[in-house]
C-alpha cells in the first residue's frame, strides 16, 4: 500500500493501482460495484477521449506547460484504448453528478502522465489530477459530455448495424414471399387475405421507423456541454476550450459533434438522453410485436396456427421429447421488457433535475447503455438464429385460406353487406367452405365467386 493525501486527509491506496485517494474513498463509501454495475468500455473510452481533447486544447491555448499537456494526451489516449480498464473499479451508484468516476479518470490519467514524465504513482507530481488533467473542466460538464459520446458511439457502432441487418433480412423475406396469399388476422380472428410478404414487410417498416428516431437521437447527442464547467457559465475555462475540444473529439470519433449553445441546459437536464432512451423503447416495442407475431404464426406445429416454420436450434423441453420452442422469440421478448424498465428509469431520472444540475447522471447513462447492448445482441441472435431461417408452411397456409370466411368481404360490393354476411354465417353454421355456402345461396355462380374471392387479388387490389 502507499499513503496518499487529498483535501480530506490521508488514505491508503494499493501500490499497483493507478487510481488515487478520491477513488479509494469512493470504494469505501460506495461499495456497490457489483460486476453488472461497473462501467462498460464505452464510458471509460469516452472519458479518455474527453481528457485527451482537453489536454490537447489546453496545451494549444498555453493553459498547460507543453510537457505536461503531452503526457496527459498520451496517458488519456492509453485510457481510451483500454489499457487501464482494470483501474476503473467504481459502480454506477455514487454521487448523482458522477464525481467519483470523473475523479477516478483524473487520478488514473494523472498518475500515468506523472509516470511518463518520471514521477511516481500517488505523488501528484509533476501532474496533478485537478490542476492539470481537470484544467478548465468540471464533473458537471465532463460527465454529460461523456454521456453523449458513449451513447452516440454505441448506437452507431453496435445497435444501428444490428438493426440494419435484421431489417435487411425481413425485407428480403418480404420480397421472397410477395406473391404468397394467406389469411389476415384482426382481433386474433380471421380477416381478409394479405400476402406473407405484406405481413413481413410491415415488420420491416416498423424497424425502419424506429431507426429514424434513433438517428435523430444520435444527432441530438452530438451537442456537447464541455466548456460549461460548474453551472454552465464556463467559469475557469478558456473561452476557446470547448470549440477546440469539440473539433478534436469529432475527428477522433467520427461523430457529428457541436458545441452546445446553452451549456447550462445540458447540465441541468438530459433531454437528448431521455429521447434516445424513448427511441430505444420504441424499437423494443416494435421488436416485441414482431417476435409475438412470429411465435403466434409458428404455434403448433400441428395444433396451433402453424403457418411459419422456425429453425430447430435446440431441444425445447426436458420432459417432452422432440419439442421445439420459439426460444429466440422468447429471449428477444425478455430483452424488450427489460428495455421498457430501463426507459422508465431514465424517464423518471430525467425528470429529477433541480436548478443547475440533474443528479441522476450515472444511472441514466448506465440504463441507456444497458438497453443498447441488450437490443444489439438480441437482434443479432434473433436475426441469425430465427429470422433468416423462417419458412412458410405452404400446405397449412393454403388450408387456412380455403377455410377463411372473411374472403366474403370481396363479395360485399356485388351482393351487399347483409347478403354477404348471411353467406358467411351459413358457412360457419353448417361447417362448409365459403365457396360452398355462396354457391348454395344462389346469389352468385362459381366463375364469379372464383374471380371475386381470389385471395391474391384481394391482397393486392387494383385501383385506377
Kindly describe this structure:
Helix content is 59%, strand content 7%. With 464 residues, it is mainly α. It folds into three domains: 2-135, Fumarase/aspartase (N-terminal domain) (Fumarase C, Chain B, domain 1, Orthogonal Bundle); 144-181 and 196-232 and 264-391, Fumarase C, Chain A, domain 2 (Up-down Bundle); 404-459, Ribonucleotide Reductase Protein R1, domain 1 (Orthogonal Bundle). A two-stranded antiparallel sheet has the order 1-2. 48% of the residues are buried.
How is the secondary structure organized here?
Blueprint: E1 2-6, E2 9-13, H1 21-29, H2 41-60, H3 66-80, H4 99-116, H5 129-133, H6 139-176, E3 181-186, E4 189-195, H7 196-221, E5 223-224, H8 241-253, E6 258-259, H9 263-268, H10 271-297, E7 308-309, H11 327-350, H12 361-385, E8 391-392, H13 394-403, H14 412-415, H15 417-430, H16 434-441, H17 446-452, H18 455-459
Parallel strand pairs: 5-6
Antiparallel strand pairs: 1-2, 3-4, 7-8
Helix pairs in contact: 1-4, 2-3, 2-4, 2-6, 2-8, 3-4, 6-7, 6-12, 7-10, 10-11, 10-12, 11-12, 15-16
